[in-house]
C-alpha cells in the first residue's frame, strides 16, 4: 500500500511559529523548521501549556500489537484515518502492513490523496456530485488508485450513477452495500431491501458491487453482556446477507470493526470467504478512558493490552479555594465527550499533590481540579492528565509533540506530528 513518503518527510521543513499553539515560544530567535528544532534535542519543559503529547513507546507498541494480531487472524486492516488525520502516523500504520486507509468525508479524502495514499475506503455514501466527479477523475487518471464507498438505498445508487454519468467517468466506482440496524447509524435496515439495492448497483454501469459493509460499534457502548450480544447478533446478520449479494469484484470485501469489538468481527465474519477488512482507528493512540475499558485487548483478546499514548498537560493558574485548583487547559484543548480527564502526576516531582484529586468540570479554557484541602499542589505546577477518546483530542491540535518516555521527569521531544482537520 503506497503513501508519498517524500510528502510526509517534507512536513519537517514546515516552520514553527504562532500558527501552532504547541510550537515552542522563542521570543529572541527567528522561527525554525520542525527538523531544525528537533535537531536541538529539546525537552518537554521547553513547551508551554496547555499541551497535548504523544508517547513514542506507546505508539510503537500499539501499531506493532494491532498489526501482529490482524496478521495472525488472517484479516486486513484499513485504519480509520479520521482518528488522527496525521499522515506521519498513517505512514507508520501502512508500513506495518495496513491494507488501506478509511476516511469519513471528502475533505479527509483530499488530505489522503494529497499525501499519495493509493487505496482508500469512504465509510459511508458519497453523494456529492462534485466529490463524485473528483473521485471519478482520480480513478480514470491513475490505474493504481483504488477507492470504495457504501450505499444503503436505491436513491443513493441513483444519485451516484447520475453524477458519474454527468462527469463522464469511465472507470466504475466500487461500492459496498451497507447493512445497518435499528438504533445504529447509516445502513439499510432490511436484508431483503439490501438485495434489491445490490441488484441496482449491478445494473448501474458507473458502479461495481465490491462487497458488504457494516458498523457494529454503534450498537454497544460498553463491554456488558447485552452490548456484546447486540454486536454479535448484528454481525451474524451480516454473515447471513453476505452470500446473497452476488458481487462483481474479483476479490469481494466484507468490512466492519471499530476499535471496540473487532475481536467479535473476526470471530463471526472471519470465515466469510471474502477479504475481511477491519477499520479500527483509535488503537494507534488508545486512551485512559473509553477504549481502556472496552478494547478487546483489555478484555483478554490479545496477548497484551494497548497502551495510552496521548496525555494532556495543564498548568495550575489559580488555587482560589483549599480544595480547588484551576488548570490552563479546557474544552478547546482536551477531549471531554467520553469522560473527563484524569489527573495522573505533577511533572518533575513526586509526592502527595494529587492524592484524591479528580477533574470535576471543563470550561472553554480551564480545568476544574478538585484536590485534598491539604494538597501542596501550587500555582505554576504542571499536571499530567490521562485522556479519553483520541478522535476528539487530535482535532484540537495541528501540531502534537511526541515524547520518548512519559515517566521521565523531563521527557525528550523526539518528533512533532502534523494533523490536518
UniProtKB/TrEMBL annotation:
SMART domains: D-ser_dehydrat (SM01119)
Alphabetical list of Pfam families matching this protein: Ala_racemase_N, D-ser_dehydrat
InterPro entries referenced in this protein's UniProt entry, alphabetically: Ala_racemase_N, D-amino_acid_metab_enzyme, D-ser_dehydrat-like_dom, D-ser_dehydrat-like_sf, PLP-binding_barrel
Domain of life: Bacteria
D-serine dehydratase-like domain location: 309-404
Record's keyword annotation contains Secreted: no
Keyword Lyase attributed: yes
Coiled-coil intervals, chain numbering: none
UniProt family annotation: Belongs to the DSD1 family.
Protein name as annotated: Amino acid deaminase
Taxonomic lineage: Bacteria, Bacillati, Actinomycetota, Actinomycetes, Streptosporangiales
Amino acid at each position: 500500500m503506497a503513501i508519498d513518503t517524500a510528502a510526509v518527510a517534507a512536513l519537517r521543513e514546515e516552520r514553527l511559529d504562532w500558527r501552532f499553539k504547541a510550537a515552542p515560544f522563542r521570543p529572541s530567535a527567528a522561527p525554525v523548521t520542525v527538523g531544525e528544532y528537533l535537531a536541538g534535542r529539546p525537552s518537554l519543559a521547553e513547551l508551554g501549556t496547555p499541551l497535548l503529547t504523544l508517547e513514542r513507546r506507546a505508539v510503537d507498541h500499539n501499531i506493532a500489537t494491532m498489526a501482529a494480531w490482524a496478521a495472525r487472524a488472517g484479516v486486513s486492516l484499513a485504519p480509520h484515518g479520521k482518528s488522527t488525520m496525521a499522515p506521519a502516523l498513517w505512514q507508520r500504520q501502512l508500513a506495518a502492513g495496513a491494507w488501506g486507509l478509511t476516511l469519513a468525508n471528502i475533505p479527509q479524502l483530499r488530505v489522503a490523496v494529497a499525501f499519495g495514499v493509493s487505496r482508500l475506503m469512504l465509510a459511508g455514501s458519497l453523494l456529492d456530485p462534485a466529490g463524485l466527479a473528483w473521485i471519478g477523475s482520480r480513478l480514470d487518471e491513475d490505474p493504481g488508485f483504488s477507492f470504495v464507498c457504501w450505499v444503503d438505498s436505491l436513491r443513493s445508487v441513483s444519485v451516484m450513477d447520475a453524477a458519474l454519468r454527468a462527469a463522464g467517468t469511465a472507470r466504475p466506482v466500487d461500492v459496498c452495500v451497507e447493512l445497518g440496524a435499528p438504533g445504529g447509524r447509516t445502513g439499510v435496515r432490511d436484508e431483503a431491501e439490501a438485495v434489491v439495492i445490490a441488484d441496482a448497483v449491478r445494473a448501474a454501469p458507473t458502479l461495481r458491487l465490491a462487497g458488504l459493509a457494516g458498523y457494529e460499534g454503534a450498537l454497544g457502548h460498553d463491554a456488558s453482556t447485552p452490548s456484546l450480544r447486540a454486536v454479535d447478533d448484528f454481525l451474524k446478520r451480516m454473515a447471513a446477507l453476505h452470500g446473497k449479494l452476488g458481487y462483481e469484484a474479483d476479490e469481494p470485501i466484507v468490512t466492519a470493526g471499530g476499535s471496540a469489538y473487532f475481536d467479535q468481527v473476526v470471530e463471526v465474519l472471519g470465515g466469510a470467504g471474502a477479504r475481511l477488512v477491519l477499520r479500527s482507528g483509535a488503537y494507534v493512540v488508545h486512551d485512559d478512558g473509553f477504549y481502556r475499558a472496552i478494547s478487546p485487548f483489555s478484555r483478554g483478546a490479545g496477548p497484551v493490552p494497548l497502551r495510552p499514548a496521548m496525555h494532556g498537560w495543564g498548568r495550575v493558574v489559580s488555587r482560589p479555594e483549599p480544595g480547588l485548583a484551576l488548570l490552563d487547559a479546557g474544552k478547546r484543548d482536551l477531549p471531554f465527550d467520553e469522560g473527563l480527564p484524569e489527573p495522573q502526576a505533577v511533572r518533575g516531582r513526586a509526592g502527595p499533590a494529587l492524592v484524591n484529586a479528580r477533574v470535576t468540570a471543563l470550561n472553554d479554557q480551564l480545568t476544574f481540579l478538585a484536590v485534598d484541602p491539604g494538597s501542596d499542589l501550587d500555582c505554576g505546577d504542571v499536571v499530567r492528565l490521562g485522556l479519553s477518546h483520541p478522535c476528539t483530542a487530535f482535532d484540537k491540535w495541528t501540531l502534537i509533540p511526541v515524547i520518548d518516555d512519559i515517566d521521565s521527569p523531563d521527557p525528550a521531544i523526539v518528533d512533532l506530528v502534523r494533523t490536518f482537520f
